[in-house]
Amino acid sequence: DQQVKQNSPSLSVQEGRISILNCDYTNSMFDYFLWYKKYPAEGPTFLISISSIKDKNEDGRFTVFLNKSAKHLSLHIVPSQPGDSAVYFCAAKREGNEKLTFGTGTRLTIIP
Amino acid sequence: DAGITQSPRHKVTETGTPVTLRCHQTENHRYMYWYRQDPGHGLRLIHYSYGVKDTDKGEVSDGYSVSRSKTEDFLLTLESATSSQTSVYFCAISRQGNSPLHFGNGTRLTVT
């Protein structure tokens, strides 16, 4: 039972354009959401997070949007750069619960 | 790497043999986690620890045990390895339950 879903296994975007990665969740108790980025042969690295009390969080080129009614979050990267090519995982948790549930990942390829 | 070392980085073992993976941290973080990454499944939590000698199961704990006798070390043991346990294993740490996880670079385990 996949509680966090990333329905696009891969995405290709031209350099300089906007990359939009999507994530859906089914557990309405989730109230904290994170995005991680993973390069080959390395561990995932934390990118950005958002609490359910917000609908947007921005950090430089990265913005995460949360739509609680739709149980949907998205990560926007603008402008996209070649170094952004990686696998992106969204993750979710309940406050007070140490367990983080990950999606299956989306492989983003930035085309020069 | 947030002071996380996983060993070994690669291991090939035969079905039925015991295997222990080690995670060592130098950050003095309270929480430590073991995840496995498989194609189509993303990252799935095996076990986690919220203090010395305090551990709990994740979503895919069958066939695995853990031990944490010191703050800095978290061991994952496969008592009798099976081919279904071929995977990449990641250790992660966090300062507290709501802090982002920081991951090690993984151990690639192949069970033949």
Q: How would you sum up the major sheet of chain A?
A: 6 strands, mixed
Give the helix proportion of chain A (percent range): under 10%
Number of helices in the DSSP assignment of chain A: 0
Summarize the main sheet of chain B: 7 strands, mixed
Total count of strands of chain A: 11
Average pLDDT over all residues of chain B: 94
Give the integer mean of the pLDDT values of chain A.
Answer: 95
Proportion of beta-strand residues of chain B: over 45%
Counting DSSP E segments of at least 2 residues, the number of strands of chain B comes to 11
Which regions of chain B are unreliable across 5 or more consecutive residues at pLDDT < 50? Answer: none
Q: Please, how many helices of chain B?
A: 0
Low-confidence stretches of chain A: none
Overall structural class of chain A, as computed from helix and strand content, comes to mainly beta
